[in-house]
Amino acid sequence: MLYSSNKIRSKYFRRKYIKFKKKNKFIYKSINIYNPEFIRYINCFFHIKLYFLFLLVFLYFSLKKKRKISNFIPNNKTQSKTKICICTFAKQENLYIREYLEHYKNYGVNKIYLYDNNDIDGEKFEDVIDDYIKSGFVELSNWRGKTGIQHPVLNECYKIHKDNYDWIMFSEIDEFIHLYNNYSSVQSFFDEPKFNNCSIVYLNLVCHTDNEQLHYENKPVKERFPNTVPTSMLGGRRLEIKFILRGHLNNIVINCPHRGMIGIKNNCNGFGHFNKYKSIFTTEPDTTYYYYDHYYGKSTEEFIKKVKKGGGAYTSVGFKMGRIEKYFRENKLTMEKILLMEKETGFDLSSYKSKIKA
């Protein structure tokens, strides 16, 4: 190509010398930095470099986020002045009580008030958690041999301790709070400004299945029962709720820790959104960020023991049959489970057998 204009010639043929190393020797080579082909090459080169740079940044933060979630372990290392306790009652829970206490201790709960509802001659919590009692983390109250204790226990516990704590939880031994990994403790959760005007916070109960286990195994329940009940097996029912109550409230009467409370305003969910909860089920379920893992039945053998001992408020046959109905609704129905349950409880479960035959 011929260039008649010095201006054009200088534009396309202006030369620069670059220095690079080859075989331990510095070599100077001239390049034409205004040549259109050279410009296209440079643009392409930098575009490729930028592409890989963005890709590396994306991968770095993606892997960092995943690693943070998978390795997350709650801890009680918090500078918060917020004080949180648990009021709970238990009967025949020696196999599970230590895992429960360790979970909430790791989440920063300040104290657990445990009401012992075992039979008078039954098992003793001191045999398995004496160290927690002596350290002061657990305060044990004797309600052994009593029936229908749920409402009296929760009301007494709140009335006695409401002025000493900012929040009071009522989780039972099979309920483990789960907070998204941004929160290292329950204090860091409730210190959020979104709860400043909340009197009650409701969290969903996410039930876990029996994982097709018939008998007890000496392992943590969180390890044994990772599977949760599919929405399709809830029969159109919404997820249950459990409330956490702010301290320093007056004239409180707790009828059920699963229902909204009359006379208390500012009911909130785990996101701090105001909502009116009138029943045991929530209209705004959350199973992703803030909830309770509820190990309701465990294995069939363990569930049978749960049926036999009754509930904190109810011990009637109708109540026990209701528990069996819930268990078979949320777990796979098998003849082996039905026969084992019939043998141990003495209940006629022929209606469930007919469902298998059908």
Summary keywords:
358 residues; alpha/beta; Spore Coat Polysaccharide Biosynthesis Protein SpsA, Chain A; 3 domains; two-stranded antiparallel sheet; 11 helices; globular; disordered N terminus
Describe what is shown at a glance.
This protein has 358 residues and is of the alpha/beta class.
Would you write up a description of this structure?
By secondary structure, this protein is an alpha/beta fold. The protein folds into three domains: about 5-70, no CATH class; about 85-295, Spore Coat Polysaccharide Biosynthesis Protein SpsA, Chain A; about 305-355, no CATH class. The protein contains eleven helices and eleven strands. It has helices at about 5-15, 35-70, 95-105, 125-135, 150-160, 185-190, 220-225, 300-310, 315-330, 335-345, 350-355; strands at about 15-20, 25-30, 85-90, 110-115, 140, 165-170, 175-180, 200-205, 240-245, 265-270, 290-295. Strands 3, 4, 5, 6, 7, 8, 9, 10 and 11 form a nine-stranded mixed sheet that branches. A two-stranded antiparallel ribbon has the order 1-2. Helix 8 (about 300-310) packs parallel to helix 10 (about 335-345). The termini are far apart. Mean pLDDT is about 80; it is low at about 1-25 and about 65-80.
